[in-house]
């Protein structure tokens, strides 16, 4: 049997009380001096109980300890039977024994923490009391303690070690029992100690140590449930005790009443406390009740989640530890209210929090020097808090009274669980509203956070708060999690609560200019017609805080259903055979529930498997335990206990290793554990850096890195063009001073844009999403005197005098842009002329020295708009805008005659317009609907390797789940991005699935997406959580394709099976609900690369042949490479069985072969594609075949074409100019649209109309 239960509830149980000799001294002094006051005694550790309590070697000793020498231990010498001596008055010779103690447990401080107010001796019976402790080691790992203080009476007086004829006064002595666990199960452990208290009150004094030992041994048998919806229940009579599980792996256990601080503090004080925590103040909590201290502090730690307190946390200080509050660093401590004045006088600038009175003050000053929380977030929190029902009695006033104690307790727990969920959501929303757009200022590529830019975008009144928070360890740790791409409740709520405008802005615009809608929100006062046109109901907040609108969405908090696993009754006596029998009963019970759990409920199944793995490990059934943990890959890999499995693998005996080698799934698991161990030794830079301006000259590579870190430019190509612009006519390096000047001009332009104030007449004429990017100086124009304003859609004149709006032109309507010269006496002033295709008159503006720059900018925007319209890709406009803003900053920075020439290096689209014909062929223009860029948040384009469209879901039980159809894109190096297929906005940025290329994707039952990888793993993504919870590892070579076979017409996943194939020729048939292998077979071929199912027949495509197979894998016929292309290989296979056609393409060939499926021996028909160097992908859509190709011709930049062929005539119906690189992927969206993805030089996705 294993040494101790991994993930068990108990870490240690310790009894603390007075020493026997001290107690005898007190008793004698009371006899000699009648009426003397009762002294306080120093508490000492009397008993220590730590697992393991039994072992195989202790068969003859039912409950005696057998201490393992294999564990890391610390030895402690205790006085044996000290407890019974005290109670019976029988002095015995003091003996000692060695006791193993958890290495991080401080036995010196523990007695004082168990009696923080001192150990009392009283003349009357006092009530029992509980309080709670938190222990933190030097690495930040926490253990949690629950302390029961209770009083026992001495039986008789003691005098010189003999019974006295005159009895001393009856004394009641305080003892403490402290249960310590690695998990914060405060309520559960309190219930456990309450059950023990019942036993202690009725047991004999001599049996007390045995009772505590047996109690500890029982707790050591209780496994802690894994994260998820499974709770564990066990019985310590008379109470049934429940251990709740964590919500997910990143979330802490919550087993306390989260509304306690809401009962103690008003909103203003509570927000002050939260601000003090987030700004890392020195804080001391006070209460007359020791129990309130830890519980309140722990609640507050949960309120700020996912941020974590990084400094000393000691919720209870004994009276001998008060000098701790003089520490110079940030801390969070707690004291009895009687020490309030003493602590306040010890040092200044302490935040003093009185829990009993609900007050917050500062020592040594009259006001609290802690900045207020951001006003908009605070206001929302206040509104949310007011809607909470915090009083249980009001909730159940209409319900019947339960006569059963445990039923009454469960009713209260259900209410508390629901309230805790509501509070968690409200406090999480507060944190999300404070730090909603932090990710916008993070550069994940270089692990840099742009602090200055983040601060500039905060409201002036909120900046003191953010200035302090941004310097804290709390925030730094939070940034590291965001940089590492952590997907948790914070990131999910951030997405859920985004407005449509925020989603669109994030996916399209990086320039941080206020939209017209935001300007309207900021101005506050609008006429009714403009308010109606904007259609936005603004939250009822102070207008000064509305620059950053916080979405007002209703909070939908589904209470997740939970299952409770009732553990068997604890055995008696607790000896080795009985405990083995207990574990056997528990395994049998888990076997039954696993068999009864439907395979569709894989999440619950995973929790049962996890617990069975723990018990098997404890029962020394190591291979069975490994098998249970390995099955988590198919049920929920999120709860896979990596460290535990590593320990388990290391403990395998030689015989077990031989057996594991014979089981392929265990062999693979062991190899994976060892590989992970190697990768852990590779050091990674997890440090988050602040952006700093350069201090030395920069070559191209350093400049590109610096430009990306600064947030000015994201993509590498634009950074390189900017480098060329700034180094025109000079050395090919950029001096730090030049970059500083350029950076300041760029940021100054951003700041000025934030303060543009447009009159209502102008706002009415612009679209909600438009932003003003550039304003000229006041100039004379043919439309009057004013300032020329540029948005992403148009140019307009902001007239002086009576501010008005005169539209100059939309960019798409421009026909010509040029510089002319306006003649004045003795002067020739350059002017800008713009010819609009919809107007007769030509607009002219005397821009003087600004003229050349404006001509350059207008031409670039014009070219960008033309390309956006032609290619149906709005990102061309966004890139043109970036180019224009960079031109403006370059000219302002250089201030030389060559400045405009330098800026012209950034006129990328204007150069393309001049060099390459921008006319799109009519078939392409008619078929192309839209283009999107899956690499928009990356520094360079990525190849689109695989595409998948999943249909929408019209009804959902959960309102917060998005039911829109989605587009899944597999990019280079194991990355997947997801788009909303209605708005084409980015829904999920970069799900990482290993480091290898992803080869294939398949949607299943609208709940799962299967993805096959070059690393031989099948990754399964949950479409609701967007997390990869399952992996299938049965393939040994790269997975190349999937096929879904429906076993009946009802289209249910339970009535279907999946075929997967890998390059080595292996085909596996999967049972979908259980993810078990139904059967598998191997094909002899050269690289199996595709599989399709039609009418109970499998068609498998390899490089050297196409095979027709029966469902069992029996070969029915084989198509070999034609003699004409013997030197090449098959690349793609597409079936049109209704037309008895098999379409095949060949590597690096523009030719297609169409075979007769009913007679494969018959010579095929040949089709040659024009202007094509090779077929890369091919799909069937209705009666047509769409073929993606590589290679192009002529002056066009088009390298990827799509040919649409009629299946009857085998002729090309359409030739579409699709991409600037080869077409890598094609997918049909419900036969209405075709999606095409290209290689990395283009890296975009095109949406095509089928008809």
Task: Walk me through the structure.
This protein is an alpha+beta fold and 1251 residues long. The chain has five domains: 186 residues, Beta-Lactamase; 246 residues, Rossmann fold (3-Layer(aba) Sandwich); 103 residues; 169 residues, PH-domain like, CATH 2.30.29.30; 241 residues, Methylamine Dehydrogenase, Chain H, CATH 2.130.10. Helices cover 31% and strands 26% of the residues. It is built from 35 helices and 55 strands. Strands 1, 2, 5, 6, 7 and 8 form a six-stranded antiparallel beta sheet that branches. A hairpin with a 4-residue loop joins strand 45 and strand 46. Helix 29 packs across helix 32. The longest helix is centred in the middle third of the chain and has 30 residues. The radius of gyration is 37 Å and the shape is flat. It starts with 11 loop residues before the first strand and ends with a strand. About 6% of the residues have low confidence.
